[in-house]
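Structure (tokenized):
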């Protein structure tokens, strides 16, 4: 199944994509999502059906890559970004300890 060109008035694109990813996984479909959006990395999982993020350079981002880059498991990434902000590496390190 390929979902392209979806719109939802009043919602940001990453929220629409996250909803489609969650729906697909709930219904047994593995998901490969081509995006650079950090928030969507919170959805990645190795458990079947798998959800992966693929960056524009072709690198596949899974749970291990999220943990390595941000210091937290994918399911905690949104909290980390909310506490520390998206751009401050020092803030991320401190937030990951909380």
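Design, position by position:
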């Amino acid at each position: 199944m390929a979902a392209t060109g979806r719109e939802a008035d009043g919602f940001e694109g990453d929220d629409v994509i996250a909803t489609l990813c969650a729906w697909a996984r709930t219904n047994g479909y593995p998901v490969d999502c081509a995006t650079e959006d950090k928030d969507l990395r919170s959805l990645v999982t190795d458990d079947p059906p798998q959800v992966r993020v693929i960056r524009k350079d072709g690198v596949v981002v899974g749970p291990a890559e999220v943990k390595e880059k941000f210091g937290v498991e994918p399911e905690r990434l949104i909290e980390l970004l909310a506490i520390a902000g998206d751009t401050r590496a020092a803030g991320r390190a401190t937030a990951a300890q909380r």
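Reviewer-requested clarification: Residues 13-26 form the longest helix (14 residues). The chain has four helices and three strands.
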